[in-house]
């Protein structure tokens, strides 16, 4: 199952050449994952109150074509793997009107941690169940 999150490229997202600065694609991907979690009813602020957070463990990103100022984009997020304490996402960023053209895609592994210790922990059971159902 894919989750689509629309974003617009703002001037602040671009470099001096007017193209999206490479690190900002990671920010767009983060927003896509956050909004996908929200659709599961897992708001970050609620998780934080429960001493639970997700930290990026690994990011593999490929850049194919530049997105430019004012482009309308879709961040497309899907689950590749769900384990007891980690999730691997596949994400791609495409023009909003052309899902076949890919500007950037990544494979992002996140690990569930206890915020107070930053040590890995099991994903809360109800959230894990929702994730597995959505994958």
UniProtKB/TrEMBL annotation:
The keyword Amino-acid biosynthesis does not apply. Keywords: Hydrolase. GO terms for molecular function: fatty acyl-CoA hydrolase activity. Pfam families: 4HBT_2 (PF13279). Belongs to the 4-hydroxybenzoyl-CoA thioesterase family. This is Acyl-CoA thioester hydrolase.
């Amino acid at each position: 199952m894919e989750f689509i999150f629309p974003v617009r490229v703002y001037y602040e997202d671009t470099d001096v050449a007017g193209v999206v600065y490479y690190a900002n694609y990671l920010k767009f991907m983060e927003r896509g994952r956050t909004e996908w979690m929200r659709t599961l009813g897992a708001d970050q602020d609620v998780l934080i109150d429960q001493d639970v957070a997700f930290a990026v463990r690994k990011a593999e990103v490929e850049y194919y074509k530049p997105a430019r100022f004012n482009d309308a984009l879709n961040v497309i997020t899907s689950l590749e793997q769900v384990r007891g304490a980690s999730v691997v996402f596949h994400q791609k960023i495409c023009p909003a009107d052309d899902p076949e053209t890919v500007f950037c895609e990544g494979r992002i592994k996140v690990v569930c941690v206890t915020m107070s210790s930053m040590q890995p922990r099991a994903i809360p059971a109800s959230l894990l169940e929702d994730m597995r159902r959505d994958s």
